[in-house]
Design goal:
With 80 residues, the protein is an alpha+beta fold. It is 55% helix and 16% strand. It has three helices and two strands. The chain has a two-stranded antiparallel ribbon with strand order 1-2. Helix 1 packs antiparallel against helix 2. The protein starts with a strand and ends with a helix.
């Protein structure tokens, strides 16, 4: 079972996994890719924003980040 996953719901309201990653590095790479797509897209979808938030939450949980200030700093200053 993958440590990090992103899921979606199809037209029949059935959930499915569309991305899986085993390592924290995989998750950070996918998060970077999704954030780049968000910046490049003129009108990003709510699904893309939800995927970014979900993956970011999974990363924070894996890293043990619980302080709200740390989470805000991570969003404002990624990689810092």
């Amino acid at each position: 079972m993958a440590r990090f996953t992103l899921t979606a719901i199809d037209e029949y309201s059935v959930g499915y996994t569309w991305w899986e990653g085993e390592t924290l590095e995989d998750a950070h790479d996918e998060l970077t890719r999704l954030e780049c797509r968000m910046q490049e897209t003129r009108h990003p979808s709510h699904e893309l924003e939800a995927a970014i938030n979900s993956l970011r939450d999974q990363i924070w949980e894996a890293e043990g980040v619980t302080d709200t200030v740390d989470k805000i700093a991570d969003v404002l200053f990624p990689g810092g």
